Amino acid sequence: MKKIIRNTCLIFALFLYASCKKDPAPVPVTPPPVTPPVTPGTTVNYLQQAKETHTFTVNNLLTASYGYRANTTTHSNNCYEWYNVSQIYADAAMVSLGETTYLAYMNNTFKFMENMWDKRDLRGGYFASVNLDGSGAAGDKYVDDNALTGIVFLEAAEVTTGADKQAYLAKAKACGDWLINSGLWDNVYGGGFYWNTAKPEKPTQTNGLALQLFLKLYSLTGDAIYRDWAVQVNTWLNTKMFDTNTGLYIWKIDGAGDGVKHNEKFTYDNAIMVEAFILYSKIMNDAAYLTKAQSLGRAMNNTLWNALYKGYVFNTAETRINPAWCAWGSQAMIRLYETDKNESWLVYAKENINRLNIANRNTTNFGYYFFAGFDGQNRSTEMETVDQAWMQRIQALLSKY
Questions:
Q1: What is the pLDDT, as a whole number, of residue 39?
Q2: Fold of the CATH domain 14-398
Q3: Which domain of life does the protein's organism represent (predicted)?
Q4: Residue 71 in 3-state DSSP?
């Protein structure tokens, strides 16, 4: 999973592949007219917006092989693992609402994903990228991508039956088993999973997603190995990555020796941890973790919320917002609301999506720009599949409320 962060010289870097390589920052374009802000009391038809987003995705990003090209511009000939599974995640949310026409999209993309599975290594694991026809799978494998893939497949299994259900469950378990056997956990920095097979760093989001997958697999199978890995990952995250001053989790550790801690705070890192703690509280029967999830949610809203524009920042060093990474904050708030029924969480979830619709949505074709300012200016040229997927998904989830 890629992250972009601005250094003190205001130089930006974007990743060439979905998770690993860098190229110049996107060139801002003059946006179409900004959608008027939603006024108090206005009812938003989130389900309709989710459907409009899906239509854009199908018309502009879906390939004949039922994979999704990375974007419409710079990487239109690449399919990325976490982009494709994010679209499956989005379609699973629609199916859960009774929108059964999305089932075929979901299942066909699942079949396309087999092109990314490493069939030359008995441990398996998904590669990060392939060509549009599914060829060319090679290179590094990413812990966060594979963990998210397992999480997505478990949700897809919930909305399918028969052989399809069993196939999703089997592949989700294979993702978890790859994590365990990948050799990407060691004692450097006291433990933790590396981001990928090149072992450059150990990030919060990588380990937070692994924690979620292990918890879900333990709940599903009862196998102690998944419980033990969940406990191990959770202990490392809370020992090494938690910042007591802000009540939030930091970005990553890298470098020689004890490593350098990068203390920037990202919305989606902390959203992932909120969801992980909710799962931990339920699956491990530990009420203290619901309290931790609620405290982390409040810390997000204290530090990562832009009160002027009513939306989550990408990170504490950024002035732009992104539909996937910032929308993840809404998913965390929805999960908190579903758990404790405190409606204030839902307010944050909705306002954040409303802001992304104002800032990043093209009002003509209903696609979402990769980055934009909170005010809708300085939009990047790219329209990434992953951004469409997350906006479709979160608006589908919000349509229930």
A1: 46
A2: Glycosyltransferase (1.50.10)
A3: Bacteria
A4: strand
